[in-house]
Amino acid sequence: MIWGSPLADYLPIELPIDLKADGSDMAALYWRHRTVVADFFIPQDSFSHLRIRFGDALIMRVVDEMAISTEERSTKGLVKDHLAYRVEDSHFWETQSETFRFVHKNADHYRFVSAGMCLDVISHTAPLIVVVPADSGPANVPGSR
């Protein structure tokens, strides 16, 4: 990593469908009181989206995919055309305040990389990943309130 930090390790997250990340992009993003819901286009299915939902998001950012390629020096664990990862020792995690990292030491960094953008989320809980109708709103998620 940059500035003497360890190199990031990308740990792929299994998806419920076969989705090629280089043909997908974020369709919608919703945020409300620590809940983050991100819908991604499914290239082979225009009637559905892949939904990523966090119920306990502490920090979230959306950046251009190009910016990520300049931020991380390591590609260890990256899988061609894969969308979802848990990332260990990332630049994003290491640049959070020392207090935040101490208080939330059990949180994980998740990264979703599509054709044109990257969604980073730091959360204490793993995301719920499901396929939903493309016209559904953010509340149409199993387990949501």
Please describe what this structure looks like:
The chain contains 3 helices and 9 strands; from the N terminus they run βββββαβααβββ. The protein has 145 residues and is mostly beta strands. The protein has one domain (2-133). The termini are far apart. The model is unreliable at 1-5 (pLDDT under 50).
Summarize the structure in short.
The chain is built from three helices and nine strands; from the N terminus they run E-E-E-E-E-H-E-H-H-E-E-E. It is mostly beta strands and 145 residues long.
What order do the helices and strands come in, and which of them pair?
Layout: E1 9-12, E2 26-32, E3 35-42, E4 45-54, E5 57-64, H1 65-71, E6 84-88, H2 91-94, H3 98-103, E7 108-113, E8 117-123, E9 128-133
Antiparallel strand pairs: 1-6, 2-3, 3-4, 4-9, 5-8, 6-7, 7-8
Characteristics:
145 residues, mainly beta, five-stranded antiparallel beta sheet, 12% helix, disordered N terminus
Low-confidence segments: 1-5
Order of helices and strands: EEEEEHEHHEEE
What summary fits the major beta sheet?
Answer: 5 strands, antiparallel
Sheet-strand content, in percent, reads 35-45%
How many beta-strand elements? 9
Helical run tally: 3
- Give the terminus-to-terminus CA distance: 39 Å
Q: What percent of residues adopt helix (DSSP H or I)?
A: 10-25%
Strand order of the largest sheet: 1-6-7-8-5
Give the class from helix and strand content and strand pairing: mainly beta
Average residue-wise pLDDT = 86
Radius of gyration: 15 Å
**Whole-number total of structural domains:** 1
- Overall shape: it is globular
